[in-house]
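tool_call: predict_structure(chain=1)
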Amino acid sequence: MTVGRFHLTLTADGRPLMHGWWGSEATARRKLAAWIGEHGDRPGARVTLVDEETGSVLTEWPTPP
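tool_result:
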């Protein structure tokens, strides 16, 4: 597994606030839940998890319409 394959981004009102990269998808998903809990009340907050190896967006919060 590639180290840093799973990239997590937190933006608020379209501005990047935090980035993180993990080699484990399970770890990245735990971080995603933590970031939502810690920062989800910020205006315009969005958390995105991307698989950097495939370029796929694995999940976004809040879920796009």
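agent: Helices lie at 25-39. Proceeding to next step.
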